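ENTRY TYPE: paired fold submission
RECORD: A
CONTENT: sequence, then structure tokens
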Amino acid sequence: MIPLKDDIPTRRFPILTVAIIVACCFVYFVFEHGGWGLGSTGNERVADYGAIPYEITHPGKECGQTADGQVVCEGQEGVSGTAPDQPPWWITIFTSMFLHGSLLHLAGNMLFLWIFGNNIEDSMSRWRFALFYVLGGLIAVYAQTLIDADAAVPTVGASGAIAAVLGGYALLYPRARVVTVIFVIIFFTVIELPALLVLGFWALLQLFLGATDLTSPSGGQGGVAYFAHIGGFAFGLLAIKLFANRVYEDYDRAHRLPVY
């Protein structure tokens, strides 16, 4: 299920949403030197500027990348020596929101942000949207950290903050229509679905995959930060009414049945 667009027009140009998309693309292609896959330079950037749960829960202990690409941390069993100088953990919880692990990772996140972010930005003042987005990303990082506080795997991507946007959208505009691609094995179709169905399915999928990941032999190291998504989405649901001060109240007018 891939959303393509919604049917709610915005009342002003979504300048912050566009700015975030541009910033994420710039960071991926210029700062990380990313392409279809990450090279060694990109991996170094992810290790340095990604949010590593171990660093967050062990202040003063730094993590670094070994010659074979593995991330190890000071104080871990079997690890000796000191890591090279790294950005402080409290900086990485912000920078991690702009890093991405692959072009597909970047493209998927930016698609969801463009479809749903413009209307959430439109539902509040711009400074409120900036604060809502950043707080959603921070909650997402800490939600993932709670699941495995000793993980040395960098958490990167805008998906936690975008999940907060999705949660807010699901609560504010549940009856909006979303043009969605539905895949059935090798076939696909394009249909309009209620936003609550699309976003509710996405949230349930994150819960299911997160639970599956926890019970897998890898112990939650499946490569996707499902609990960051869950934490961000929950924050969006719970906090959106505190931020949204100019909601588009008549958004579903075109779908109402006529009254005679």
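RECORD: B
CONTENT: sequence, then structure tokens
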Amino acid sequence: MSPAIPRSTRNAVGFFAILAAVGLVLPDYRLLVVNQYLFLAINVLALNFCLGLGGQISLAQGGMAGIGAYASVLAHSHFPHASVLLVPAVILGAFAFAAAISRPMERLGEGFLAMATLGVSLIFTNVVLTMGDVTGGSAGMMVDCRLYVPGLGPLSGDRTFFFLFLAVMACGCWIFAALKDSRPGRALLACKDDPLAASSCGIDRAALRSLSFGLGGAVSAMAGVLHAHYGGFINPEQYSLELSLKALLFLVIGGPGNLLRPLLAVLILEALMSGMQFLGDARTLAHGLLLTVALLAGYWRGVGRKPAAGRP
């Protein structure tokens, strides 16, 4: 008799099957909005590598997405038909950069780690503004080059990029689940739960957390690549600290370490907030109340799952 399919696998397959069906039936003007949700969801998934597995509170996701976006656009301006080489190079470069900056940050206390990652986003913005002749500065720059696939030609269209975003998110989820169930993943969780006990067992905490931080940076950079070539225009505000804070908010709502709940939180809550346009100036208050309720629900869900005192 064949082994039963794990419930988490069935949930993931159902989740992506529903999203794929939505992408097939929604009109293009609706997909334009949904693609922005998927871009944010991928950054939430990227942060889950850092916080959910490695226990690193990161505010660098906006900066890493911006690095991927600008690096890809500038590289494609010189080699417009080399996407199959340039995109992997950008992703690997983002992984190496994120992993490299993670090592020295391990010497900081946990309270300072978030401030250090905040510096990554701020430095990215300042570099873009300073190099205005190349990046367009605060005015931004038009993206004339498309992602090019041999045999298919340049990629364009809302539906095409919907499935590209969906494929990146599915691939990221598979990597997350595979890593979490692997030996390095269990070591990462041990470092997160009890660093001293993990170190006493011979686990190299700095090396493992640089792996999770590097993967988070690479996933955000990939989201930035797709976002830049999809929108046709980029500026630093699209990859500002606000993106990092929103990713952290939705991950906290869904629960760090959980695979699907943070992604569902993005899609559902962003859709609800977009539907509040009729409230006018009261929309901001409604958004805050909605997010507060979601945060409290996530908190009490977590409290409810903790064992009672005196119970295993």
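NOTES ON RECORD B: Confidence is low (pLDDT under 50) at residues 307-312. Residues 205-231 form the longest helix (27 residues).
STATUS: closed
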